[in-house]
Please model this.
Amino acid sequence: MKRFFGRKCEDKIIIEEDEFFHLKKVLRLNEGDEVIASVNDENDYYCHIAKINKNDCLLNIDRIEKCPALPNRDITLFQMMPKKDYFDAILAKSIELGVNEIVPFSSEWTQNKTLKRERVQTQIQTACKQCERSKLPFVSDIISFDKMIEKLKDFDVVIFAYENEEKAFDSNGLYGKQKIAVIVGNEAGFSEKEAEKIKKQNVQSISLGKRILRCDTAVVATLALVSVLSEN
Model:
């Protein structure tokens, strides 16, 4: 059953703009067809198309169920801003792996310091539909390295994936933790000064092995470990 993001209006759900175009012009769905609607809350709304208008369509809600794909841990990814193509992949994969918030930050070796909000929102919505999440994660504006450091105090545990680290991942550090942060660099990595500043915080600096991973691969590797071991 196809999934669409819309907005709830009393006992109906309205599908409009790009989602409506996809429903009508791409998938060519008709009145009476069944779909799943998401309205950025914790529920899946099982609906049928009641009426197709010129610029939107109305869905009648048949039943409501809690979305089974929602994360049960509060995981935030602090991502050093990479090249645009890398960031697209990082957004998609981190959402699939259960991240609730993505915080891009600039650093000494950051070249890309822009974020196209409309493109980001499209990527978020597409990824949520792919992994059947009903609630959209939040992607913040780009913050400074120092601001990122300040935010680390708000978490139960912080995992820092660092290419020059030798220590292995300690899974015991995730047991029972609810608010988890993950820090990953970009294609240029961290300067020694930045890495030392991070490691002075209450973080677990980890190695991802002897091979140097591309930044989008490092995100997947780290979040997969965190998601499985924290039972997310």
Q: What stands out?
A: The helical segments are 17-26, 84-96, 117-131, 145-151, 192-199, 215-229.
